[in-house]
Design brief:
It is a single chain. Helix content is 41%, strand content 18%. By secondary structure, the protein is an alpha/beta fold. α2 (33-36) links the parallel β2 (26-30) and β3. The longest helix has 19 residues, at 84-102. The radius of gyration is 19 Å and the shape is globular. The two termini are 37 Å apart.
């Protein structure tokens, strides 16, 4: 039996459907049954169990008879009590300890490209700290570090697509030259599924798409797919930083944070892309991938 956390999220929904197609027995950890209700439409016999990764005692029932844990839960913006340290570090610590106590054999973990001990952003620092907890767990493990993930219902390409549709210009934070390596959610789900099925996949893996694109190039491709010509307005990060501070101070869920601005000051590309080299998956072009859901093919 496999325990999946984060099944109601963007990546989680796609991975859950992929694992069901592979005839894997999956139990989904949800904070409330109401939050997981939509998962029941994916197939018969969907098993939901309530629990909270920030409360270790609540995880005991979820861990019963579990051999493999797939841990996806993470946040990109801190809101209320949901801080990076609480979710990424303390939450992962609870999951690992509960898994070890229950006799689970493997732990498959979602991290992020850019996670490292000397990272400038707290997001990446806490992602690294979570990785260290997994590495030191004593269990067999696989850690995945994807670049920005795109797909239907993502919060990245869809946000800019909306801006392209309603505005004559698109605001780009910084100079637009920072590079990313967008990877399809379908490819990420396939890699996780392969790792679940084959324990020979172990260690840490970086995941990226076939193209390394600047922020400007990503916006240009979204515009091209939508058939719109839009002017890009580059906003200096020095101006955005105080704006982000104000948003963090007054909004419950700020659309932009200072931590995100730190991440935008560096490239987010792979050194060793495991997607093709290790897992044998040939990623498609970003432009082709986003066309499937931005314009329906």
């Amino acid at each position: 039996m496999i325990l999946l956390t984060g099944a109601t999220g963007f990546v989680g929904r796609n991975l859950f459907k992929r694992m069901l197609k592979a005839n894997l027995s999956v139990r989904c950890l949800v904070r409330t049954h109401k939050k997981g209700e939509a998962l029941k439409s994916y197939g018969a016999g969907v098993e939901l169990v309530t629990g909270d990764i920030t409360d270790k005692e609540s995880l005991k029932n979820a861990m019963e008879d579990i051999k493999i844990v797939v841990h996806l839960v993470g946040i990109i913006v801190e809101t209320g009590k949901a801080a990076f340290d609480l979710i990424h570090v303390h939450g992962t610590k609870n999951m690992v300890e509960a898994a070890v106590e229950a006799g689970a054999q493997r732990f498959i973990h979602m991290s992020a490209l850019g996670a490292r001990p000397d990272a400038r952003s707290r997001y990446h620092m806490t992602k690294w700290a979570a990785e260290e907890i997994v590495r030191n767990s004593g269990m067999k493990y696989a850690i995945f570090r994807p670049s920005v993930i795109f797909g239907k219902e993502d919060n990245f390409t869809n946000m800019f697509a909306k801006a392209v549709k309603i505005s004559p210009f698109v605001m780009v934070p910084g100079n637009g030259r920072n590079m990313m390596q967008p990877v399809s959610v379908n490819d990420v789900a396939e890699v996780f599924t392969m790792a679940v099925k084959d324990d020979n996949f172990k260690g840490s893996y970086e995941l990226g798409g076939t193209e390394k694109l600047t922020f400007d190039e990503i916006i240009d491709k979204i515009c091209y797919v939508l058939g719109r010509k839009r002017m890009k307005v580059h906003i200096p990060l020095s101006l955005l930083n105080p704006m982000a501070w104000v948003m963090e101070s007054v909004l419950p869920k700020p659309p932009l944070t200072r931590d995100q601005l730190l991440m935008l000051q560096e490239d987010n590309v792979t050194r060793d892309n495991a997607l093709e080299q290790v897992f044998g998956i040939k990623p498609g072009r970003f432009e082709d991938g986003i066309r499937e859901y931005l314009v329906g093919g």
